[in-house]
Write a structure and sequence with these properties.
The complex is a heterodimer of chains A (about 140) and B (about 550). With about 140 residues, chain A is α/β, with parallel strands linked by helices. Chain A has helices at about 15-25, 35-45, 65-75, 90-95, 110-125, 125-140, and strands spanning about 5-10, 30-35, 50-55, 80-85, 100-105. Chain A has six helices and five strands, in the order E-H-E-H-E-H-E-H-E-H-H. In chain A, helix 2 runs parallel beside helix 3 (about 65-75) and helix 5 (about 110-125) runs antiparallel to helix 6 (about 125-140). Chain B has two domains: about 1-265, PAS domain (Beta-Lactamase, 2-Layer Sandwich), CATH 3.30.450; about 400-545, 2-Layer Sandwich (Heat Shock Protein 90). Helix content of chain B is about 50%, strand content about 20%. Classes of the chains: A alpha/beta (about 140), B alpha+beta (about 550). At the A-B interface, helix 1 of A face helix 7 and helix 9 of B.
């Protein structure tokens, strides 16, 4: 079964890779990249993702908010969940106004992410997405 | 603190003020008194000087008149006429009628034999040839004797006139009534304590003085100290009295009219003035001392209070600066911890995922792995909570503005903790003022602060005790106090209790953030939180919140 397709954008490799592994293990297709620029390139290359999990605080020229804006410009339908620490909480609220659909406070629990993921997929409304969300909820209920 | 500095300052002000007020006061007093005393004494001196001069003139006139009368009789009567006692008696009667003071008259021949005599004494036929005055009058023509007892042993003096008549030389002699003469002298006496008397060149008193040894005694004044010419003045002391003495030499006789006055008596007015002056100055000094001490006390007290206030404000400022810096640092550290925590949490999750694989489930240490990973997760969760708590209060940058009914908030908070307190045999008492105003603020945050303080109070007591929560309407805000009967906080720890991560509770029981968060909440509301504690007696936290008008709805 074709699962949800997630892009994880976070400069912390350990975090990113582990999160991806855990998602994949749960049959969720996950792609990762370490910066806003890379994420943007993926979009420009025509890749499309159901949900983007985007860290707000990233080093380099593009932080989470800038990346969010660019992604929204290329693909307004992209759903973005922001990852934030306390210090950037205000920024994540700003991000919500910029079109992000939710945010999570780091350190995150996978279950919380899956919960948000399910909600986002539900909202997308297509049968495929609803099926995916159903799948995820079942998985959460099992634990 | 600097109490001794203030004591010194106080004394300096007092002494300086007294110096600048007393110096002119005393100077004025002394100068005025001296000036006044000088003038007054001068006046008294002048008065007795004038009296002495005037009275001396009167005495001179008296002597001159008597001498003139005798001279006139002697020059206008022939020896044969005057030697007849009947005539002599008529003369005595006439001159006593017109002039007075003559006691007797006598006619004496050139050998000193008294040829005729009229008077109360039996002096007929006496010979005065050996008397010292006889030689004097024979050579000088006119003679006024000193007072002497004479044959009769009664003090008297005589005036004698010599007359040359063709071949005959005779003398007309008269005794002068010492009483009448003495009365004239006594007329010079001033006041009840004044004295006046005549003294001859040898210093023998010639008239009856009011005080002292009496007539013909040694005079209490030294005649040598009086100038020959004019009246002269000396001050001297006799029989322990302070006397002012004036003296004038008579012109017709080498007698000195001495007038004495009792200075103490004469200057009584001056002394009364001095007493009044001293009383006024003393009253002034008393008033100045009182006022100076009082105002200085007031002033220094004010200074001390304002310095204490400044110190308190500085301490508060330092406290808030320190806590702000610590807060910033702690927030930074917390944030940096978040990232590794995020990784650890994912890694443990990943390990748990992998442990679910069948081949591992069979391994010998599977359960150990599971338990360890669960522990790691538990402790990450704990660390996460600490960070969350610490940063949590900051999440809402602007506290919400809503109606806070402080008494309701207190009661709600106590309801939450009632069970916890009861299990530890701790009684929570409230003493809430009824007139508490509704203030504007963040109800949840105020509740959190009270919750923290009451929880701390319960934990501090441990078992059995009382926590008292009070609310009061102060004039510039509201005051809530939470007091416990716990062991108290040593003074050296009191400045640390608001620091983040400072805790006295056992590891794992407290994060050390409660008071720090409370402090930040109260400060953001524009209030103050402070602690009063005495070891062995308990601790009291005092919250002061300004009255902020609740938002109009």
């Amino acid at each position: 079964m074709q699962n949800a397709n997630i892009l994880v954008v976070d400069d912390e490799g350990d975090f990113r890779e582990t999160l991806m592994n855990r998602l994949r293990r749960r049959n969720i297709a996950a792609v990762g990249c370490g910066s806003g620029e890379e994420a943007l390139r993926l979009f420009q290359e025509g890749n499309r993702f159901d949900v983007v999990v985007l860290d707000i605080k990233m080093p380099g020229g593009m932080d989470g908010i800038a990346t969010l804006r660019q992604i929204k410009a290329i693909h307004p339908g992209a759903d973005v969940i922001l990852l934030t620490g306390h210090a950037s909480l205000e920024t994540s609220l700003e991000g919500m106004q910029e079109g992000a659909c939710d945010y999570l406070l780091k350190p995150i629990k996978l279950e919380d992410l899956l919960e948000k993921l399910a909600s986002v997929l539900d909202r997308k409304g297509t049968a495929a997405h609803r099926a995916q969300s159903e799948e995820i909820r079942k998985m959460l209920a099992k634990r | 603190m600097h109490a001794h500095l203030y004591t010194r300052l106080r004394w300096k002000i007092i002494l300086l003020t007294m110096l600048v007020t007393f110096t002119p006061l005393f100077l004025l007093g002394i100068i005025m008194y001296r000036q006044f005393a000088g003038l007054y004494t001068e006046k008294v001196r002048e008065q007795i000087q004038v009296r002495a001069t005037a009275q001396a003139e009167a005495l001179d006139l008296f002597l001159k008149e008597r001498t003139a009368i005798l001279g006139t009789i002697a020059e206008t009567h022939a020896f044969q006429t005057i030697v007849v006692e009947e005539n002599l008696a008529r003369k005595l009667a006439v001159i006593n009628l017109w002039a007075g003071a003559f006691v007797d008259l006598g006619v004496i021949d050139a050998t000193g034999q008294q040829l005729a005599y009229v008077g109360p004494y039996d002096l007929r036929g006496r010979n005065y040839g050996e008397q010292p005055w006889f030689a004097e009058v024979m050579s000088k023509g006119v003679y006024i004797s000193d007072v002497y007892p004479g044959f009769r042993k009664v003090p008297h003096f005589i005036i004698a006139i010599r007359r040359h008549e063709s071949q005959r030389t005779w003398i007309l002699r008269a005794t002068i009534d010492s009483e009448i003469f003495g009365r004239i002298v006594q007329g010079a006496m001033i006041g009840k304590t004044g004295d006046a008397f005549l003294v001859n060149e040898e210093g023998v008193v010639q008239t009856r003085p009011r005080f002292g040894a009496g007539i013909l005694a040694k005079a209490p004044v030294n005649v040598a100290s009086f100038g020959k010419q004019a009246t002269s003045f000396e001050e001297m002391s006799a029989d322990a009295r302070n006397l002012l003495v004036a003296g004038t030499w008579l012109k017709n006789k080498n007698w000195l009219l001495a007038i004495t006055v009792d200075i103490d008596n004469e200057l009584a007015g001056l002394f009364a003035t001095r007493t009044i002056q001293i009383v006024i100055i003393a009253a002034g000094v008393f008033a100045i001392v009182l006022t100076t001490v009082f105002t200085t006390r007031l002033m220094v007290g004010q200074l001390l209070r304002s310095e204490t206030r400044v110190k308190e404000m500085n301490a508060q400022l330092m406290q808030s600066d320190k806590l702000a810096a610590l807060g910033k640092m702690a927030a930074g550290v917390a944030h940096e911890i978040n990232n590794p925590l995020a990784v650890i949490l994912q890694k443990t999750g990943w390990i748990q995922d992998l442990l679910d694989e069948d081949d591992l489930k069979g391994s010998a240490n599977y359960q150990e792995f599971r338990a360890s990973v669960a522990k790691i997760e538990e402790h990450v969760e704990r660390a996460r909570k600490v960070v969350h708590n610490m940063l949590g209060y900051a999440r809402r940058m602007e506290p919400r503005m809503e109606d806070v009914r402080i008494n309701e908030t207190i009661n709600q908070t106590i309801d939450i903790l009632e069970n916890y307190a009861r299990t530890n045999s701790i009684d929570i008492q409230t003493d809430l003022a009824e007139d508490m105003p509704v203030i504007g603020g963040d109800q949840a945050q105020v509740q959190q602060v009270i919750l923290n303080l009451v929880t701390n109070a319960i934990d501090a007591i441990g078992k059995e005790g009382t926590v008292t929560v009070r609310s009061r309407f102060a004039k510039d805000g509201i005051r809530v106090t939470v007091a416990d009967t716990g062991p108290g906080i040593p003074e050296n720890l009191q400045r640390m209790i608001f620091d983040p991560f400072y805790t006295t509770k056992s590891a794992g029981k407290g994060t050390g953030l409660g008071l720090w968060i409370s402090y930040n909440i109260i400060e953001k509301m524009g209030g103050e939180i402070s602690v009063k504690s005495q070891v062995g007696q308990g601790t009291e936290f005092i919250i002061h919140l300004p009255i902020v008008a609740p938002r109009m709805k």
